[in-house]
What we know:
The protein is α/β, with parallel strands linked by helices. The protein contains ten helices and 13 strands. The chain has helices spanning about 35-45, 60-65, 70-75, 80-90, 105-110, 115, 140-145, 210-220, 230-240, 260-269; strands at about 1-5, 25-30, 30, 50-55, 95-100, 125, 130-135, 150-160, 170-175, 180-190, 200-210, 245, 250-255.
Amino acid sequence: xxxxxxxxxxxxxxxxxxxxxxxxxxxxxxxxxxxxxxxxxxxxxxxxxxxxxxxxxxxxxxxxxxxxxxxxxxxxxxxxxxxxxxxxxxxxxxxxxxxxxxxxxxxxxxxxxxxxxxxxxxxxxxxxxxxxxxxxxxxxxxxxxxxxxxxxxxxxxxxxxxxxxxxxxxxxxxxxxxxxxxxxxxxxxxxxxxxxxxxxxxxxxxxxxxxxxxxxxxxxxxxxxxxxxxxxxxxxxxxxxxxxxxxxxxxxxxxxxxxxxxxxxxxxx
Length: 269
């Protein structure tokens, strides 16, 4: 299994800090946020991580690169040296893809099509500005997928009605009898108005998607906001194959804005 992390966004909600520090590199303790997300993917059984980033964010790639100077400086500090060695090992399992223009989440995911569309296993997609405290959902989503013949699974959270217009919202078809957190999905709608939202279950930063989604994204017309929406492509995928939703028990934190970042710091402390 492989994973994809879109991490090319401008981070405008965090300006002026993100003029020089990408939002994905904001520290959560001694690690930048994106390292925690990569480690979540690896813990779920992923063999290789593809990070879609921007040429304007060289610090992300530099973080995972080998650092012989730092290894030499920390040679007499075994705990720190072990962390640096661990980071180098992670770096060897990352492939880099660049996005040079911003046309929506679906467009960001599409940049990895050449690398991932030939995969036979579902691809794990973890948003680079979404941290999950508590129980991370990626491992559970892989188990749900395997239990349903390799079906796609999207991570869900329940949101207040007044906030549904900020998210992709799902319409559940049925709840799994043995697990009230798992739903077979009937439909998905990107950023609906509250009065027409099919539920309050929002797609929440984690996806496990059939590689067929890359072909759908290649022909996807712009949707809400004039952008290529990943939700629209998943909706088309749903017309041909089963898609499940998993209302995961952990708490998602949007670290792309100062308020969400402060909550993440609190949760992870």
